[in-house]
Each structure stands twice: as structure tokens, then as C-alpha cells.
Structures
1.
Amino acid sequence: MHTAAAAIEVTDLTVAYHDTPVLWDVDVRVPHGVLMAIVGPNGAGKTTLIKAILGLVRPAAGQTLIAGLPYAQQRQLVGYVPQRGSVDWDFPTSVLDVVMMGRYGRLGWFRRPGSRERELALAALETVQLQQYANRQISQLSGGQQQRVFLARALVQDAQVYFMDEPFAGVDAVTERAIIGVLQGLRAAGKTVVVVHHDLQTVPEYFDWVTLLNVRVIACGPVAEAFTDEHLRRAYGGRIAFLGGGPSAEVQDAGHAGAPR
Amino acid sequence: MSPHVEIQLIAVLVAAACALPGTFLVLRRTAMVSDAISHTMLFGIVISYFVVRDLASPWLMVGATLTGVLTVWLVELLTRTRRVHEDAAIGLVFPLLFSLAVIMISRFAGNVHLDNDAVLLGEIGFAPFDRLTLLGIELPRAMWVLGGILSANLLFIGVCYKELQLSTFDAGLAAALGFSPALLHYGLMTLVSLTAVGAFDAVGAILVIALMIGPPAAAYLLTDRLSHMIGLGVAIGSLSALAGYWLARLLDTTIAGAMATMVGVSFALVFVLAPQRGVIALLRRRARQRWIVAQQMLAAHLLQHEGTPAAADESRLSTLGEHLRWSPEFIGAVVHRAEEAGMLQREGDTLRLTERGRALAAAAMTR
């Protein structure tokens, strides 16, 4: 799958909700096989960037490519984990059914999932250590378990490029460790993983690539080059406390004018 | 077939046809769309009537179905301006179209049989008189129409089950995977509209809403699998319809009204009695939880003071009430239950935690 083209290539992307730009002329180029964090204050357009790449919001200008081609032609290569809060967890379905949804893209219209999809889903549940929950109703899961179900659903997509919107939101430290372990396993297998992330403190530890975003791209590159005090100050507009060299996780989001994320 | 059997069969067909798309309306939290569509389609009927000038024409059904879809589209258009919320948009669009239809009927079609009472309650009792012969079989027209609509609903949901499930649960992923949620949405809304139109002829607008929403809402409380919810919705709807028919015969009253009432009664029964999510089950669970928490608090209290100088005073049954601020009766009951559960032992007036009680208290506190 390694072509000359970058895993993700975003050029001159502008997205506006009702004439208010939430992304301005964004250029991002992500090479294959990196684990990248997207960080930035609330309303910076992190979720919008992912949604624009996946064709879920229509850009006002610019284009996005996955491995050199528009997303519509590369759906099979892409896995997606939306925000946990974007779905109704009281929906009448089991954990296994939700994980199998990750296979629906490969199945295409009208074909029903069968025993192969079942096996893949069970294997993915084992990877995220939820195999004993396969037949649970999804409303009985904790937040961390819900997040891992979503991760398992993305794993069965068997993609080359993954987009994950806040996979660490509302999970405890143990679950966070388990999730990052799975993500690093994906990178080791040559996949590209893009994660909307909030905890600045863990960026250097978890990720090798980072994009700092605040409506415009402040920096995009290897963590060592892009994740600097200067760039952070520009991304967070000086509302950031620096404690002992590294940037602190105590970012005060001063209620950035609320464009939907 | 006697007319009585025919009426009951029609009632079951209506109930089953309504419960199928109704399940997805309930899950998508767009239940009130059925309310809107079941009224605005009158606008479509009137407009189509003015075009074809024939009340028996199938074009009236086509026009009514399209008006239903138009309603959904207008509501979405209004909502997307972000000037009104969806519920308000429904409240704006549907009375407008409905009242336009009422004005047109009273102004231009006063001599035609299109009256407003029939719109709201229909008259399933007359359905057997309007007969239609197809393939050499003579049946009430409503039976043909509703059988066709039920088949269309079964076909659509059967073929697109996986797509409907995904786009209802997670529209974002559905779109990302290339299943157009908008296409599925309008497919579903077309069926809702078609079903409302077909059912409305037999049972009127109110019963359409009752049968689309009530049985799936009851089924939702009984299961946690989508496929079971669909099946249970159909079953509850059909049984309510039959029960309504017999209630109407017993009381010699409107059949549609009695059927809608029985839908309400079925929901109320399920709401109270459902094994997991019913009110009784909920109260039982809360009561059990209350005792468990009380036992944990007691054990935690004893554990905290174990081995401290105040232990003797804090663990005495007679003074426990002062420390925990619990009534003597409540303390007696909690101690009794904790003893039975093997959490503590009584030695005269003093309570001592067992190994098991210590472990449970520690576990409860670290959680």
C-alpha cells in the first residue's frame, strides 16, 4: 500500500459553517506509518478537519486525498472512530453487532454479515479485551468500554489510515494505556493513525507526529520539530501555562467562539 | 369471510404495517413526524383530487404520499436555517398544510364526500363494503391496499436491515462507509408516508400515529435487540388492534377509537410490568440497591473504626443509631441482613466484621 503519495494530503482546505470559517486554508501532509495527534483549543476545527477528510462536511475550498486519491475512491482504506457521544448508547443492539458494523463498508449494500464477520468482530473484541462482553447490551458498558467497542469496530475495518475523534475522552488511565497500546500496534503494522487529542502532556509520550490547529494550521510535523513552546503559544493564544520546560496539560479554554466541533 | 373477520384482518394488517417503519421513527427520535405526515397528506389528497376529479383514483394515494415526503423536506429545510428547532418546525409546517387542505375542502369541495371526521378517525367498520377483485379473488379494497403496503415495508426493511440499523445508530459512520444516510432517511420517510396514507383510509390519522409509535415504544422496553424490537412491535400492535376491535363491539363504540385506546393500555401495561425496564422492576431494583448500600455503609463504618480506641463505642448496636443517624428499626433490619449475608457477627451488643465483610467494605470504599 506504500505509494509515492502521502497517507493523507490536505491542500488549501477551507470549511465554513454558515459563512463562518472554522478551517482556513489548511495544508496537512501526513506520511505513511505515523501516529499523529491533532491538538488545539476548543473550536479549533479538529473534528471538522477529520469530517472534511471523510467527506462528512463539504469544504468551501481545497481538497483532501487519501493515498493520492479522493476519499470516495478510498473508503476501504479508511477506518473511523467518531466521538463516543455522537451515538445513542441506548440503541437496542449488542456489543458484537456494533463491532460488526465496521465490516459493513466491505460488505457493501444489501449483503448481510455472516460467520466471517462474526469471527473478525470477536477477534477485535479480544484485542481490546472485551471478548466476554460480546453479547452485552451496549447501554450496560462504562465509558471506557464504549470507547474500546468503537476501537474494535475500527479494527475490523482493516484499514490503512485511521481517524479517531477523542478516543481518550472520559476513559480512566488504565483504559487509556490499553487504547494507546492498540494504536501503537497499528503503527507498528505500518498503518497511519490520526487522533484528536486533548492532553498536551502525553503528546510526546504517545505520538511521533503532531498537528497544531487553531482554525489555521500552526504546525505539522514530527513531534520534536512541531511541538514547541512557540507553536503551542500561537495555537492556544498565550492561554497556556508552562511548567518546567514542557507544556502543561492545564490548558484554559477561554470559551472560544462556539463553532460546532 | 364474514365482515367481522375481514375487519379484524384489516386491523392486524394496519397494525403490522405501521409498527415496521414506526420502530425506526421511535429509535431516530422523530416520532412526531408520523403526526405531521398523517395530517398533511390530506393536502396531497385534495390537490390530487382537484387534478383528477375522482375520489377513487389511485393518484390520490400518490399525491398524499408525496405530500408526506414534502412535509419531511420542508421541516428539514426550516430546521437547517437554524432559526427554529425541529419540533417547532413540525408544529409550523403541518398545521399550515392541514388547514390549507381543510379550507380547500370546505370552500371548493363541499359537495364531495371528503369530511374532516373521517380524516381523524376513519371508519374501519365500513371497509368490508368497498370491495376489489384482483387475480380472481374478491376482498375488501383496504385489505389489498394494506397487504401491499405491509409487503413493501417488509421488503424494504428486510433488504436494507443492516443499512437502516447502521444509519439509525451511527449516521456518521454510515456516511463515511458510503451508505447514504439521506437516501435511507427519505426511503424510510416515503414508507412512513405511504403507510400513513394507506392506514388513514381505514382507521384515520389518530390511529396511524398510535399504531406507529405506541407498539414500538412498548417493544423498546421489552428487548435490547433491534430485530426483536421490530417483531415485538408488530405483535403488540396486532394484539392491541384485535383487543380494540372486541372492546368496540362490547361497548358498541368507534372501532378506531377503541383500537387507539388499547394501544395506550398495552403500552401502560408494558411500562409497569416489563421485566427489566418496567416501573415495578425499577422500584424493586432500587429497594434492593438501598439495602445493599446500607449494608456497605455499615460494614465500612465498622472497618474504619476497627482497631481504634473508639472501636468499642462505634461498634455497639445500642449506640450505632447515634453515630449513623439511622432509626433503630432500620439499623435492626440492616444488621439482620448483613448477618445473613455473612458480613458480620454479633457478640452480645458488639458487632464484628467477618473476613468477608471486611473484604466487601474495602471493595465498596475503593470503588
2.
Amino acid sequence: MYTTDLSGKDKKQPAPQTVEDPALLAAFEARVANDEFIEPKDWMPEAYRRTLVRQISQHAHSEIVGMLPEGNWITRAPSLRRKAILLAKVQDEGGHGLYLYSAAETLGTSREQMIEALHSGKAKYSTIFNYPTLTWADIGAIGWLVDGAAIMNQVPLQRTSYGPYARAMVRVCKEESFHQRQGYELTMALCAGSKEQKRMAQDALNRWWWPSLMMFGPPDDKSPNTEQSIRWRIKRETNDELRQKFVDVTVPQAEAIGLTVPDAALRWNEARGHYDFGEIDWEEFYAVVRGEGQVAKERMQARVKAWEDGAWVRDAAAAHAAKRAAAKIAAE
Amino acid sequence: MKDWPLWEVFIRTKGGLSHRHAGSVHAADAKMALEHARDTYTRRMEGVSLWVLPSAQIVSSDPADAGPLFEPAEDKIYRHPTFYSIPDHVKHI
């Protein structure tokens, strides 16, 4: 899974300006321009640190919230095979969230702060998870399209300039490929099934196609932080470049199993060597970013409930650890 | 809520190789750290052995000292075998 690029949306809170030492800044810029990795204890500009904390924590939150739309289908998976696969996938998403939280923590934020920001609604996560999963076919569409878009986004991030983020991405990318393939295979099975099953698969594609394209974030001319992020090698490709790549590889995948991409304007452009595609409904995107997604409230309620219901376990573990530590000291 | 302490995780991928840093986990104690490391970092047969140790126990060098620490080795090229020229007809050296 991946997070939607939400940069440039915080117009209400202009970032505090920090005056950096010009010599340190120049040395940093030179290292980054030279494709060197920046590590936790290295000097970095405050704006770089802030951008990374925001991006990595949003990414982590997206992995964690991303467990919810699929998790609610585990008990309803149509076979033991599908259930085992879905369980493994959802567990992976949890793991990806943990790798990313750890990477963000190396920048000086804490797990507690990040979780608090998510639960209080201060932190954003990918807009895609605020759409409901209505049928089993949605589980196929999520793996194929949502994880497909995530891979497109994450592959270049393996070379992002911040070492711990890049290393987390290497691990995530290794695991993500299975997510996409199982989703496509699931969709393929529906397409080879009854008329009703094929209709379900088409319906899922219809509903998930546009939100998947939105996952790449606002168009380049509306994404003011992109230039800075590219210069600092935090991002390696722009939102529109990645979106185009995704469309180019996904359309033939849909055709291969007899599905139709729900875009009347979609056609191959021989001169560009790319597909042209229709206008994205950015009003819908910004509405979901503002928290008006169909199941935004439900997602956060489920997340907070899980956290609160687990409080006694965390308390018990902490009490047990304290008791053991005290006993050890007494014995010494 | 206060975060559980942070632990660094090291994995031996197979016998004969050394443990290598994989990432970190939060855990209340060492036993739980091992369990979390197993669940988080070895879901695909990545290892045969795990080490976890409290992150706070790691002592590391300061990047600002990288020059004084590591640069002195740069001009000691006589520490490398290629520094020495030996005639071609002399073998096994």
C-alpha cells in the first residue's frame, strides 16, 4: 500500500521558516545532488526533516488504515486458500506500517506522537482507504489497482535520499509484488467465472479505477512541494509521471481479462507513446482529503476502538516487564 | 500511553553468515522484542536466528567525527596488496 501525496494541502499552517547555516546547507545539497544517502545522525535542514516526518508518517498511517478495508473481508473469503492469502496480505500491511513508523522515529518523532496524530484526525492517510469495500471483487481490485499504484510509487522511493526510508522501501517493495499478483489473480478468477462474477469484477474496476489514479496525488502544477522534494531526492518522479506509467501498464492488464476501464476518453496516443486519459474529478479528491470520504469516520472509529480495546494488554505487558525487572534487580 | 522501549533487530539469514541489522521494534521486554522481531521481520523465511538489543545501549560514532576517524586510512595505501609490484615471473604471491 502507499499513501497519497498530500503535500501542499496545509495552506492554513505555513511551515515555520528556519534559517540554516549556509555552509552546512550547501554541503547537504551537494551530498544529495551526488546521490548520497542521508543517515539519521547526519546534519539535515529542518525543512527536509519536517517533510520526511510528514511523508513517512502519512505513509505508515496509510499502511495501518489500509488493513481495515481488507481485514473486514477475511472472515468472508470464499475459500481457505483465499482466506490464508488475504490474512497474509493484511499482516504484511501491518508490517509495512511498522517498518515505516520505525523509519520516521529515526527523525526524532515518537510512535506515541504519530499514533496520537492519526487518532485525533491531525494526520492524513491515503484517500483511497476512505472508500468502502462492497463486494469480494473489491478485494481483487484493491490488490491489483491500489497495490499496483503503490508499487509504481514505491519503486522509485527505494532510492529516496533518506537511508532508513529507502531501506524500509526495499523491504516493502519485495513484499508488495505478491499483493498485486494475488489481486489480479482473484479478479482473473471472477472474470473466468459466471456472468454475475464477471459483472462483479467490472463493477469493482469501475469504482476503484478513478480513486486509484488519485492516489498519485494532485497534478504537478498543483503540487508546490514537488520541486523541492525532487531536488532533495525525497521524491524521484512527479505525480503525473507516475500516474501515466500506471495507466500505461494497467490498461493492457484489464484488456487481457476482458474488463473495460471506465474512461470514455482513454485511447492510445501513438505520437506520445502513452495512453491519453480523461480528466480526474479533483473536487472528489479534495473532498476525500478533507475527510469527507464515504467511510472516513467508520475507519477512524474502527482504528481507535482497536487501540482502546488493546490498552489493557499493553498495560499488562508493561506491568509484567516492570515486575520482572524489579525481581531481577532484587536477585542480583 | 508511553512507548515501549525500542529494540534493534539483527537477523542471521543462514548458518555461516553473521547477524545483520534489519530494523527495530518496540517491546516491553526482551522476550516480547524477540516475538515482535519474528513477526515483523521474518515472515518469509528471512532468517534462522535473531538478536535483539535495546537501542539505548548502542554507542555510535558521530558523523561529524568521520573525518578524523576514517580519513587517516585513506593515505595508507601500503596496507593493500596491490601497492607492491612483484615481477610477473614470480608466482604464488
3.
Amino acid sequence: MNNKALAHALLWLVALAPAVVAAFHAPPASSAPGDWLNFLGRIAGIAGFGMLLVAAAVSFRLPGVDRWFGGLTKLWNTHHLLGCGAFLLLLVHPLLLAMAAVPLSLSVAIGVLFPPDGGGAVWLGWIALVSMMVFMAPSLGFFGPPKYQRWKSIHRLSAVTAVFGLVHTLALSRSIESPYSQWLWWTLATLALAALVYGLILARWRHRYPYRVSVVHRVAPNVVELSLEALARPMAYRAGQFVYLCHQQRNLHGRGEEHPYTLSSSPDEAVLRVAVKDLGDASRALQSVVPGTAVALTGPYGDFFPKSSGRELWIAGGIGITPFLGRVRWLAGRGEAVDIGLIYCIQDEARALFVEELRQLNATLPGFNLTVHYFYKHGPLSSDFLRYHCRDIASREVYICGPGPLLQLARDLALANGVSRRRLHTEEFNLL
Amino acid sequence: MKKFCYSAFIAFWSCIATLLAVNVLATGEKGATPATPGYSLEEVAAHAAEDDCWLVIEGKVYDISTYVARHPTPPSVLLPWCGKEATEGMRTKGYGRDHSSTAWAMLEEFQIGVLAESAP
């Protein structure tokens, strides 16, 4: 297990620690089904809430910290899994506790869910549960794909879930002996709060960089590459990383909103460049941004490429070419020979982005081999195509970036052709 | 995963609705609730033994004689509360922790009346 896998495992360990302690400390009172259901109901609640707090703690973007986990997209993948797990367990939690009371009587079971007198802590639990359903509904696509900005606003309701859930848990927890219970929960809650304070306040101040749009280069009818010049200290970054960009142009949609874009420039360049494809309201608006517009960048994030270059195969699809573009521009700037094959998957020549520049680099950068795969001509990417253009694929580090379906296909093909999971690196654009 | 979560969400509310519906139907069969007798604290105090234990909790009188042996703690923990106003014991367990909603719901099963002073 490498360090990044260990870091992810550590998150799960912290999230599940209270449940493990509770399981040992307060096992089922007897072997009766009711006692077992009660035990499982308690453990489900404890595990679910632990996962929720850790998911909250890792949801804040801390530049640099994400690289411990293999990049922000990988970290958020764990955030999604923790969130889904918490959602399922916290749904099961009250049901199991109610079912556990059914052998006593039906009215007792109902009383567990809806206490007739008092039971304030239980009602706080309900507020936490219902607010969780509301803030998770867009993330889980209950009502179709959400709009990014609306999703972001609704997701803030998670703070209500965390606060009410914490009060509910502290008031009712009986599975872990006092004061250890309070220590455990306050530690997790403090972790989440510290990440919130750091992510929302300190990181904004420390990792936010003022820039100005200097050049808008139209790459295609729906793609622009913005060159940005620093207004203060420039951001240090590595090729293939991404930033959150927030523009300040009046009368342009999304002013003041943060959206992620991959850096297409080499870290050695004087200006910083981002390639933006019209994929939604905010990226559509940026197609019309004018030079001179002030922008704020937060980041950098991501850990797609290692520091040094080895024998590599890159597979890019559409706008997924961007991190590779940044990387190859950087390698070309160093002037050293490389051993890299790039398979660039596009539908047809008309949709090729930056392909002239890539062909030029193919001719001038020793060891860089560009292959363009046209969907309309070659059909879906296949094993035969991969093996024909990269015979030693099994012994290379493979990097894939592109739309979901291509990413999945390329990953399956690489694995089928002997590439080990350890050598397979992917960057997913879908952050929701 | 998203579809599974959505299914779980629907299943959750289905279970809650079923439980509530069955409870309403079952309660309807029981008919009218008998009048609740009132007891004074003196009357309650006469039942202060392990096998004859009455408690007053938040204005209601409970006869938990048959439950004392089943309570998770030893009978010696409950015994000092028998025959007395025991709201504090129920709400704090002696160390600031309320009883679970299961415990509160179970308690309702043992109600035999209300405290005379607070009886209507």
C-alpha cells in the first residue's frame, strides 16, 4: 500500500473509530433479535455520523494537502464514498432502533421514532436527518443533474446536519462511556470545524492570487485559452494541476463564482494559461471574457503527474488534453528527450484542440509521439489500436484524462493490456 | 451508487409510513382509553420495594415492578427511586445523560395513572 492509499485508509479509520469503540464497549445486551437490532441501529448511527464529520473535514479545498491523497479529485472521491455511506447508515439508524422495539410493542417502536413527551434530542436528530436528505438530494441526482452554483448553496445545509447531529449524538450517546464519548465526538467535530475555518478563511487569504486576463485566444468556437498575468506574487504550480477561477467582469454571468479549470501552461512560462470549454453557464460566460478583466485564482490543486518524466502513455479525450498540453509544454521547455506516447481521442479533425501545436511538438520534441484517434474514422478506442500504436503499453505509466465514458473505456483497455493499477493514473473532471 | 441511495431514500420513507399506518390501524382497534386515575405522593411512597416499585416521572405514575429485574443496571440502582419522584433519575441517569427514546417509549407501557396534584 503506497502513502496515498494509506492516507485514504486513515480517513476511513478515523471515521469508523467511534463505531469500533462503541461495538466493543456496548455489545448487544443479549442474543435476542431485538437487542441485536438495537445494537446495529446504534452502531449504524455512530458509524454514519463519524463518516459524515470526516466527509465534512475533507470537503474543504486545502491547496497542497490534496496531494497527500493523490489530488483533489481523488480526495473528493473518498468524500463522496464517505457521504454516501453516511447517508445510507443514517437512514438505517432510526429504522433499526424502531424495529428493535417492535417486540416490546408497536407503540413503543413508534415512540422511539416520535417521542410522545419531551425527547428533544430525538427531534434534533430528525432535523439533522431531514436536512441531510435535502442537502444530499442534488448530489445524489434525485432531481436530475444539479446546477453547480445551486448545488453548492444547498450543500452548505450540511452544517445544519453536522451541528444538530452532534447535539443529538452527545445528548443520547450511551454506547461509549462518558467522557470518552465526548472526547471522540468533539475531536471529530473540531477536525471538521478546523478544516472549515482553514478552508473558508485562511486558505482563501493564503492561496488566493489576483490575476488579470491579458490575452483571450479562441481555440475553437466553444473553447478559449485565457492568458493571465499576475497582479501580485505569481502562483507556483506543477504542470497538469488545476485552479479555481473567479472572474470580476461586470455584466458577465457567474461574476464572483468559483469554478475549476485546468492549467494548460508550463510552470516555466511568464503567464499562466487556462483552457476553458463551454460546458455550462459559467464556462459559457468565460467565452466572452475580455482582456483586462480581473480574476482571482485559488489553488493549485491536483497531483496528476509525478515530478520527473519516465516512460509514459497519455490518453486524452476532447478538452481532457489540457493537463497533457501543460505537461508537454513544460517538457519541451526543458529541451530534454522524453519517452512519451500521446493518443489524442477526438470525434473528427474539426473538433481537434491545440492539434497544430501538438504536431509541431511531435516534430521537435525528441521521444514525443502523437497519435490522433478519430472516433468517426476508427470507431471507439480499442485494444488493437492501443497495441498497434504502443506495443510496450504494459511497461509504461499510463495517464488518462477525458470525458467519463472514454476514461472508463481507456482504463478497462489499459488493464486488459497488462497495465497494473499502480501504473494507471486518471484525472476526472466531474467533481460533483 | 446514486440509484442505490435513491432506492434507500424511498425505502426509508416507505418503512416510516408503513409503521405509522399500522400503528394508527392497531390503535383504532383498541377503542376508547380508560380514565386515568390520580395518585398522591403518599400513595406512591407505599410502593417502594424491588417487587413493588412505583415511580413518579414528569407528573405521571408508573408501576415498573415487573420491569425492575429486566433493567440493564442492577436493581440496587433503581431501588432508591422506588416510591418517589424519579424524573431526575430518568432524565440524567445520575450522570447527565437522558434515557433513550426507546426507554421513554417503553416507560409509557407501565403508566398506571397521574400524580393527583397534577391530575385534571
